[in-house]
Automatic annotation (TrEMBL):
SUPFAM superfamilies: YjgF-like
Source organism of this protein record: Falsiroseomonas stagni DSM 19981
Domain of life of the organism encoding this protein: Bacteria
Pfam families, alphabetized: Ribonuc_L-PSP
CDD domains: YjgF_YER057c_UK114_family
Name by which UniProt lists this protein: Enamine deaminase RidA, house cleaning of reactive enamine intermediates, YjgF/YER057c/UK114 family
Length: 132
């Protein structure tokens, strides 16, 4: 059986927040992704406390892991995103939209937390992917 992925059409609000109301899959393999955080970018540069750079790095790390499993970032069907500062919510939406062109967004939950395991971390992204 081949992999089929269907993103249900979202409301205008859901589209504006860059998430799908549901993603339906059949076939394929499910990939459960551990939460990703980053205090260094992929080149080893310090990105402590830098929300945008940490989000971009987290998505790059998720993409890297999904590629190891036979997919890529477009294979992501669910994310849970934890942020330290609720004022970063709108910025997260813009960054997420950049990573999922064409409106094929993963389903998502966004939560604000009081702290992370290490100082300097401001976001953590975990997810579920479906790969062929």
């Amino acid at each position: 059986m081949s992999l089929v992925v269907e993103h249900l059409e979202g409301t205008d609000f859901q589209k504006s927040r860059a998430f799908s109301p549901a993603v339906i899959t059949s076939g394929g393999r499910t990939v459960w992704l551990s939460g990703q955080t980053a205090t260094q970018d992929l080149d080893g540069n310090d990105i402590n406390w830098d929300f945008e750079k940490q989000v971009r790095t987290c998505y790059a790390l998720i993409d890297r892991t999904l590629k190891r499993a036979g997919g890529d970032l477009s294979s992501l069907v669910w994310t849970t995103v934890y942020i330290l500062d609720p004022r970063h919510g709108d910025q997260l939406v813009k960054l997420r939209a950049e990573h999922f062109p064409g409106g094929r967004f993963p389903c998502s939950a966004l939560l604000t937390v009081s702290a992370f395991a290490r100082p300097g971390i401001v976001v953590e992204i975990q997810g579920i992917g479906v790969v062929p």
